[in-house]
Amino acid sequence: GAVVSQHPSRVICKSGTSVKIECRSLDFQATTMFWYRQFPKQSLMLMATSNEGSKATYEQGVEKDKFLINHASLTLSTLTVTSAHPEDSSFYICSAQGPAYEQYFGPGTRLTVT
Amino acid sequence: AQTVTQSQPEMSVQEAETVTLSCTYDTSENNYYLFWYKQPPSRQMILVIRQEAYKQQNATENRFSVNFQKAAKSFSLKISDSQLGDTAMYFCAFMYSGGGADGLTFGKGTHLIIQP
Fold this sequence. Notes:
The structure holds two protein chains of two kinds.
Chain A (H helix, E strand, L loop, with lengths): L3 E4 L2 E4 L5 E7 L6 E7 L5 E8 L5 E2 L8 E7 L2 E6 L8 E8 L5 E3 L3 E5 L1
Chain B lengths: L2 E3 L4 E5 L4 E3 L2 E3 L5 E8 L6 E7 L7 E2 L2 E6 L4 E6 L8 E9 L8 E2 L3 E6 L1
Parallel strand pairs in B: 2-12
Antiparallel strand pairs in B: 1-4, 3-9, 5-6, 5-10, 7-8, 8-9, 10-11, 10-12
């Protein structure tokens, strides 16, 4: 149990375009999901907290107009990177919070902006 | 804000040996959780072990155990009988538990290499 999926696993887009990443909890409902970013050989940095039915909470320094988060249901959160630029290239990982505060992570999405 | 420090960027041990990964943290909170996550080359984050701050007893999961010293704000991970499959990045993480839904604050990680 406690499986989280992400789609796509890899995406390449041109500079200036937008890309959407989906995060789904497959066998449990998650009121709260989280989005992290991981640069090569670095740790994970929390970008935002996604709450079902309400606005996301962004960490300091994260542009909310650039990284749009929608948590439309108890099993789906989406992250849209708008007007992507090469510096947005990174590994994006979502997690879904279980009933005992544990977090289950998706497999990640590698975004490359050319 | 809390910080998590892992002072060992890389460690290497022989298969079957015991290895201890260090982690210290800084927080003014009293209610929190601590975690160790494993990230193999696939980059899938895998929960290794968790510890509730209010519990004095150290958590154990098979070959994995922690030494939680709350006053010293230390949370080390011991891996016994290490196996080749334990080779991975290991991240120590902190989560405040008073707010209901908080993200994780990660340390910089320790790259653990198990040598055959």
